[in-house]
Amino acid sequence: MRPTRPMPASLTVYTDPASGIRIALAARRAGPVAWRRLPGQDLAAAIEGALAAVRGRTAFACVLDGRDRRADPAQALARCLARVGLEGFGAGAEEPGGFHAVAAE
Is 50 exposed, middle or buried (0-12, 13-18, 19+ CB in 10 A)? Predict the structure, then answer.
């Protein structure tokens, strides 16, 4: 019997027009999208972090601060999911930690 390889993740990069929050979303299949803030990081770090963290999960998003520091990142993620038309996806819980914690998972 051949070992099964995990389904590859798709990657979506989204900028929320209302807040300027940038989101790197890696997804394998529908479900809640766990996410983590990456303050002070750049988009390349967010992409790398999302792709590393999605292993063993349905979906994961790394969220970068926008121009409005008071904006709610969970709401920005929900708008992202609605805008890109990903049915069955929803903003899940924020996971604490930084980039190094994401990459190590």
Answer: buried
Nearest partner of 101 among 49, 46, 28, judged by Cα: 49
* pTM given for the model: 0.83
Q: Which residues pair with 37 in a beta bridge?
A: 63
The model's pLDDT over 26-82, given as tens digits with 9 standing for 90+, comes to 999 889 999 999 988 899 999 999 999 998 889 999 999 999 888 999 999 999 888
Q: Please count the residues of the chain.
A: 105
E-strand spans in the chain?
Answer: 10-15, 22-27, 31-37, 59-64, 89-94
Contact by Cβ (8 Å): 35, 62: yes
Residue holding tokens 């190590």?
Answer: 104
Does residue 93 carry a pLDDT above 70?
yes
Q: Tell me, what amino acid is at 93?
A: A
